[in-house]
């Protein structure tokens, strides 16, 4: 049977993709950020996941203002990097995992999660930057990817509790898939940042680190953090962190911390990264 | 319904210097955001660069929205229903980095803003609530 072996949380700041693509990742500005991912790159080489369920948000790339799915799952064969206004990133196409993706989609719908299904779309920095951070610059990505896009832009976005519950349902879905697959769930976005208005530039190191603490062990306190707390404490775009709760929910009752990294700043954003494994 | 929608939305107005992208803003800014989104296509960027006003006039925007786009007044555009991820297509087409565009919405110059970020960012202290002042 398929199984979820680990969860990864990571920011997905577009500038990190630029740093990789332009070879700047070892300079004084980016070096300390990328150093915190070295452990994970080595670990991923040993883990060799077959499939990653990659939770991210689209930044007005695949979806425009017309259709706003709260939770959408990619069931396609492959996805191309999106042109976000300055040409697509020079990274490999992303290979999908349609059999497992459709299985998860069907299971989630039977489990009361009314998913939107996507067959064709381009994927933006929200999805490709975490792949670059964890895998570097390979000719092809070393595993298949199931994109899971969450609306964290137009309010109301899904509650933290709903995100966590979706993660729990993804775990049930994966564990009922008959193939023997090593599956990881990645939650991306955040951490604290505000990209708009006179309060732009807000960062909150203390809050971000408390949030990461709450993903370790058996506490479920993070599911009940209200939207207004993310908005007040972590900036208008810090709400992306609800996507980390899908990853945490998918790891089951209890987790163990394998790796953790935090750095301020990357452009407008606080960088957070952690690797967790489920404890049965 | 676990939370009253009116109470939920009212809290958003209590955050200093922030426009939360609510359904009301999404509705008001629909065409503005779709215009910005259109700049992702190279052929549209060419038309836009060849004549900004002429390209804007092909979209059903209000005059206020058009003038704010031409002036690159991003705070005004947020008030008129723009969302920053959509508006980013405008400053990306201008070749302006995200952080520089952000700085134009604050009371700082870009070098001052960049230095604030290097120094740890804007503190949440005093920036969480208008009414509460904390």
Give the name of the CATH architecture of chain A. 3-Layer(aba) Sandwich
CATH architecture grouping of chain B: Orthogonal Bundle
Helix content range of the residues of chain B, please? 55-70%
Q: Could you tell me how far the N terminus lies from the C terminus of chain A, measured between alpha carbons in angstroms?
A: 16 Å
Please trace the helix and strand order of chain A, writing H or E for each element.
EHHEEEEHEEHEHEHHHEE
Overall pLDDT score of chain B: 96
Q: What is the tally of helical segments of chain B?
A: 10
Radius of gyration of chain B: 17 Å
Helix content of chain A: 25-40%
Number of helices of chain A: 8
User: How many strand segments of chain B?
Assistant: 0
Largest sheet of chain A: 8 strands, mixed
Q: Count every beta strand of chain A, where a strand is a DSSP E run of 2 or more residues.
A: 11
CATH class of chain A: Alpha Beta
Can you describe what's shown?
The complex is a heterodimer of chains A (280) and B (134). Chain A contains 8 helices and 11 strands. In chain A, a hairpin with a 2-residue loop joins strand 10 and strand 11. Chain B has one domain: Protocatechuate 4,5-dioxygenase, Chain A, CATH 1.10.700.10. Chain B contains 10 helices and no strands. The model of chain B has no long low-confidence stretch (mean pLDDT 96).
Short description:
The complex is a heterodimer of chains A (280) and B (134). With 280 residues, chain A is an alpha/beta fold. Chain A is built from eight helices and eleven strands.
